[in-house]
User: What shape does this take?
Amino acid sequence: MMFAAEECSSSPSCDLSDITVSGAEKMAAAGTLHLGLSAAQLLFFCLLCSLQPGLCEEQVPLLLWTSEGTSLPSQPPPAAGHIIGQQQLAGYLEKALNVGPRNVVLFLQDKMSIEDFTMYGGAFGNKQDSTFPNLEGALMSSSSPLVLPAVSWPASNAMIGQLQDQLETSPLYMDPETLSQLRLNASSPALLVFRLPYGIGADLMSAKEILSGNDEVIGQVLSIMKTQSVPYTAIYTALRPSQEAASLSVEVGLGGGRSLLQARGGYRERERQHRIKEKAGIYGPVEFKEGEDTCILLWAKGLSVKILRSGHWEEHDLTPSTFGEGVSPKLHGSSCDKTRAKLVLNYENVLGHRTFKLIFAMSQRHYKVSSRRWFTLDAVELEYDGTKATFNGTRNIYAPAEYSYRCESVTNFRWPLLIPRSSKDPANQWRVSFEDFQIQGFNVTGSDFSYASDCAGFFSPGIWMGLMTSLLMVLVLTYGLHMIMHLRTMDRFDDPKGPAISVPQTE
Assistant: This one.
């Protein structure tokens, strides 16, 4: 994907504000797109990123194209250096969906930045090394691809909700195998979401292999859509900028020598601060206040629910509507006192339900055996359109009243900590999943959690297996040593010249 800097040699007053990533927009208008950067273009872009770090650290690229035989209305590219916000992105999507196909295929990657295409897109003319052959082929076959190089990541996070409102349908989280069993209708809108991973290991090849695998998934999905002969609109973007490529040093041939291009001006310090933020949590917890005092805190890396319909699980991610910058979840119905606390998260249009509530009911009491107070998460309730599904959590989710409770995974289906109240409860057709979950309903001081009581026990299944295997080996070794120590050798020998040896049986 070519992100070029506009020519500014002809203007004596040219400055950094004249530099823009316009190459992709020009290519999009012409109907062709190339995944690569020339040395001069990369130099301009790195200079822009080094002098305006916020511009390159808070944005993600977005690619939009349609299937062969369909086209989108011509849309003006954003201004040079402009980062597209949530409202402007909604305008682009609305114009595209009003005319284009309303079967939307959304490839949502965990992290992505423009630099990923620079590093792994076959830059500098090495197209045979491109990691995105399927993506490049889809863009080149589309008559009107749209490339937005700089979209703010909060806007990309809210895109599923925007598409859901415009299409008036709930998102379906899919994989290629599930898609092959689904039959789409061109007259009925659909929102198909494919989550793609992004990870960086100790070497650079790990990120390249993951991106290559993501491109293969894109190719499989587009191939299945083509076999069904259903026109579609495809979108490829990410939830967060990857930040990975900006820290890499890229050697590029300039003229007859070699020059090292790398971001300068305190990038390492910004990266260190970003990692500290990421480690501490990108967003703050949900707070419920009684008066001016906070009495309930909730934080999770991911909140999702699934419902079983027609033999398939339909999933909805509640995380973007609950956490994040500028997100204010509706908490009406929540309450707290010294012995009981209830946190109610109110949503709309979740899996086809107009009203949807996620309720955490907690209580605390004094236990004589331990001589201290403990709080328990008594129930997690899903209330939707007058129906209530209840999961019990009392036996498994508890902590000292002065502490918060934390668990890496709280679910009702895999190593369940939440159990449906009864076999006939509507909870049996639901799946809830809370990733990196932490909650505190009592003794909250300020906006910070107290010391966390983790759900992981001291003896995990792996530790128990190791201990039992070691104990068995020790028993076998002890028995063997015992048998060896009690072996008795002969202390008398027969002499053919003398009388025969008589050995009493008592010996």
Notes: Residues 1-46, 201-205, 244-270, 276-281 have pLDDT under 50 and may be disordered. Residues 461-485 form the longest helix (25 residues). DSSP finds 13 helices and 22 strands in the chain. The two ends are 93 Å apart (CA to CA).
